[in-house]
Amino acid sequence: MAYPKKGIGLLFRKIVVGVTSVAVLSGCSLDLNISGSSVEMADVCIPGMYDVCIQGMYDDDSNAYVPLMNGDIVEIDDNVVDSYVLPDRQKIVYLTADDKIYLMNVADEDKDLICDTAAYLGIVKNEGFVYADTKGNYYRYSLEDDTSVELGTSYYCPIDNFNLIYFKDNAAYILKPSSDEPEKLGNCEVDWSVLFVSNDGNTVIWYTSDDDSIDLYMYSDGEKSKIGSYGISQEYGYVHVDYNQTQTSIVAFPTGADYLFLINSGNEPVKIQLSGGLVSDDFYTSNGILVHDTSDKIDGLYCVVNDNNGKSICYITDDGEHEEVVSGVNQFATYEGYLYYTDDNDNLRQAKLDKAELKDEEKIAGDVGIMHDDCINGYVYYAKDVSRNDKNGNLYVYKNSSEPQKIASDVSLSFYVNGDGDIKGSLSTDGKTIYYYKNISSIDDTYNCGSLCKYTYGDEDSITISDDVMLNYERSSCFMRYIKNDLIIYLKYDSVENGVFYMDWYFYDGKDSERMAKRLKWTS
Predict the structure, then answer these.
(1) Is the dihedral of CA 408, 409, 411, 413 positive or negative?
(2) How many Å apart are CA 437 and CA 448, to the nearest integer?
(3) Per-residue pLDDT reduced to its tens digit, 277-292
(4) Which SUPFAM superfamilies match (predicted)?
(5) If we measure between CA atoms, which residue out of 124, 49, 58 comes closest to residue 91?
(6) Which letter does DSSP use for residue 78 in this model?
(7) pTM of the entire predicted model
(8) Spatial separation of the C-alpha atoms in residues 254 and 358, rounded to whole Å
(9) Parallel/antiparallel/unpaired status of strands 310-317 and 171-175
(10) Which residues of 123-144 are buried (b: 16+ CB within 10 A; e: fewer)?
(11) Rounded to 5 degrees, what angle do the CA atoms 172, 245, 307 make?
């Protein structure tokens, strides 16, 4: 059947997945509350694989395998077509080929039938999940009160919470996780493109568009208002919002636009005209990436614009003023009042930030082709001697005015349409460890695999976790940007048979890897 439009929150690849019998296969024994070494930044600010649901994989007998992120994996034998373990790893929800959805307790393997006319299983969170019936209607199931509420044929779920926006009978509604009664947001002839829903569900930002303009709106504390408009331009990209952890400062903009809207809690939206078009979607405070900031008030933001001086870093105040900080910039990041950036001459530089002024500027290294855009706790990772043809370079780290340390040669890199690059892999949530790839090769012109390595600051050498690791796929921790407690699940390439890819699923506990299941595939 043709499924209705689904939400665009934190989604994984839709697959056919899969209980009559259930077995928990033991791997490494681990305490889920591992503290490890001292953590300099609160993990809650940086989501990793621990904070999201994980989708199952399948063997040739249509058995589903769902990992618990502690070395154990649950095997489900019931012709399952989709399955997820909830972020708290206490329950698994799955859809069977005979249109039934079950919710199972991991501890005692008890299961409850949720729906017997289901065709799709979607957003899965600790508070509940979304599913569709065979008629194409969506429902929200709440774990708090074990009830289902119909959503209609279109919905949106934000990444941060379970406040669902749905559209029905030419109207938009919000259904909060603690309620079975929706709140009407307003009438709409066409579905809104929702950009943001606050954790308390009291603020919603969306846009509508026609041939001439993109119009931004906000619903806040029961009132609907128009934020502003953008003229349609081929130079503009998708409309985005960026915001801090407390959701008290919100930036709304299309990529490439030369102005944006800043929404600070308690204040009217401020339109800010920039000196050029926005180059990327990332905004920073003086302490790091905006989305990691935990303060209640943002005094100023930094971003990159493309103006008459090339790429320039721009400082934006909360009252709408902006000023150029430095021009001739390629990439940059901030941490605790310091700016790190690469210039047009491929030098990596650092300076103290005083709003739009730089002090005590100095060169860290030359011939730097790429730097990581997040300097958690002041760890600055960058690549020298970059080859865009081979897509690799030599990886280094810099910290606290110490001499830069070389980590590895020929590390795999990514390059984007706008010319920027990135280091393939992930960071630990304290920034001290980087996980990266080497020796990447293509498999059947469809997937890529390589050697997964890690380096922890202060160690003498890097460690190769495994060879033949599938790159950045949803059922791998390295699909996430950040990794907690040095705990990883990853997929290792096995073979291709009749066009079907087979992979082994591994768990890494920070020291050793153990195979949880073998010869698995995406679908049953």
Answers:
(1) positive
(2) 11
(3) 998 889 999 999 999 9
(4) DPP6 N-terminal domain-like
(5) 124
(6) S
(7) 0.88
(8) 28
(9) unpaired
(10) bbbbbbbbbbbeeebbbbbbbe
(11) 90
